[in-house]
Design brief:
Layout lengths: L16 H9 L14 H10 L4 H7 L24 E6 L5 E4 H6 L3 E8 L5 E11 H8 L7 E6 L5 E5 H4 L4 E7 L8 E2 L9 E4 L11 E7 L31
Parallel strand pairs: 1-10
Antiparallel strand pairs: 1-2, 3-4, 4-7, 5-6, 5-10, 7-8, 7-9
Bound molecules: the ligand Nc1nc2c(c(=O)[nH]1)N[C@H]1C(S)=C(S)[C@@H](COP(=O)(O)O)O[C@H]1N2 and molybdenum atom (MO).
Length: about 250
């Protein structure tokens, strides 16, 4: 299913109890694929995350550790850890395809940072592990005309991008492991959080951290991403964009 063109990034619109109960009454099945929806709580969260009112509903039924589960599509494929592939291509000397095992053979980096959504929720002290985006770019050999990196998601709709300079920062990871806030143990990224592999852009608002990462394409200019085409800032520094003054996360 593709994204609804008019759907807004959830803004915390209050949603009544009646609406929540109505949604539960629908059964809330088949939103994300069966393999990943184990508990009733996950099922509810997954449905909420795709309902277009995530912030309001999420306030009533938050995900683990204070995260909300967001998706701009009604269903997302769930490749197994062995089926998963990540493509690095575009303006590079050597296009590459990685499976999860190959990502694990590269140098691993761990970071702990607050995670901040532009709608206001913040999860303190999330620990992430994965490989530096910079290392994948270096392995591919970035070409002379390159200026930016574009990210594609296997949800079939979400895109993001960074300038090459932003993409080369130490705190930008292609992550396979995360915790769900302080006190929770890092674990392979669950499907609801964009697993098996998602981007983590530590100094920027959550919308930069594309879930269900499928493609890293080196391009000659920044292409505004899904939310940026809908009004959010392309340079999404926490506390210095989108008219917000949140404490920096990095
Ligand atoms: N593919 C995809 N990536 C996405 C989103 C999305 O809807 N689809 N939402 C973004 C936003 S706005 C935020 S705040 C975070 C939320 O991550 P979470 O769903 O793991 O809490 O994912 C970001 N990456
Ligand atoms: Mo967000």
């Amino acid at each position: 299913m593709s994204a609804s063109p008019g759907r807004q990034h959830p803004t915390g619109t209050p949603v009544g109890r009646r609406v929540v109960l109505g949604m539960l009454g629908l059964g809330a099945v088949g939103v994300l694929t069966g393999r990943t929806l184990q508990s009733g709580a996950d099922r509810v969260s997954a449905w909420i995350g795709t309902a277009g009112d995530s912030a309001g509903l999420g306030d009533l039924l938050p995900g683990a550790g204070g995260f909300r589960y967001y998706s701009v599509t009604g269903s997302v494929p769930a490749p197994s850890p062995t089926e998963y592939r990540l493509r690095v291509d575009g303006l590079v000397a050597r296009a590459r395809t990685y499976d999860l095992a190959a990502l694990h053979t590269l140098p691993q980096v761990t970071l702990t940072r607050d995670f901040q959504c532009v709608t206001g929720w913040r999860v303190p002290g999330v620990t992430w592990s994965g490989v530096r985006l910079r290392d994948l770019l270096d392995a591919a050999g970035v070409g002379p005309r390159a200026a930016a990196v574009r990210f594609g998601s296997f949800d079939g709709a979400y895109t993001e991008s960074l300038t090459l300079e932003q993409a080369r920062r130490d705190d930008v990871l292609v992550a396979h492991t995360m915790s769900e806030g302080s006190g929770s143990r890092p674990a392979p990224i669950r499907h609801e959080h964009g697993g098996p592999v998602r981007l983590f852009v530590a100094p920027m608002y959550g919308y930069k951290s594309a879930k269900w990462l499928q493609r890293i394409e080196v391009v000659d200019k920044v292409v505004p991403g899904f939310w940026e085409q809908r009004g959010y800032d392309v340079d999404a520094w926490v506390g210095r964009s989108n008219g917000r003054d949140d404490a920096p996360t990095a």
